[in-house]
């Protein structure tokens, strides 16, 4: 069999309906405009989160907290748990289990983005960008750098980061859409 025969065989194989349908069902939608917009949103949010964390880590290794006003400070805290420090632990088994669950949730979010309508894709992309930012930190630093400290006098809210803001915002937007905006199918 020469190269020409091999090319012809591959061409015939690709033109077979089974392979064509597999490609159309699984890969043709990836390059659609809506999916590219969502990909851009994920990259933008991930980058914004990374830059904010890089800046605060760089600053706080040499300095103390950054005073913004009477209600907000930037003060670096390393979080080994999930959102807002919940489930923080020094146990590597718990930490690795939480990280594995987060990976599964991210895979599910990607699946939901692929299967959803555009507005849901957009909101899920906001969540995904933040989730990937925090996952990157978990894998790189074995903790997530939280630094936004909102407080009033001696009461301090949980310390959080930009990724947490995007995750929370995306989830709230999904909930508001589901609860208050009529579904196109109804």
What's the short story on this structure?
The protein is α+β, with helices and mostly antiparallel strands and 186 residues long. It has six helices and four strands, in the order H-H-H-E-E-H-H-E-E-H. Strand 1 (66-67) and strand 2 (72-79) form a beta hairpin.
Note down, in words, how this protein is organized:
There is one protein chain. The chain is built from 6 helices and 4 strands. The chain is α+β, with helices and mostly antiparallel strands. The protein has 2 domains: 1-30; 32-180, no CATH class. It has a 4-stranded antiparallel sheet with strand order 1-2-3-4. β1 (66-67) and β2 form a beta hairpin. α3 (33-60) packs parallel to α5 and α4 packs antiparallel against α5. The radius of gyration is 22 Å and the shape is extended.
Provide key terms for this protein.
2 domains, single chain, four-stranded antiparallel sheet, 186 residues, alpha+beta
- Biggest sheet, open or closed, and with what strands and sense? 4 strands, antiparallel
- In what order do the strands lie side by side in the largest sheet? 1-2-3-4
> Level of helix content?
55-70%
Domain module count = 2
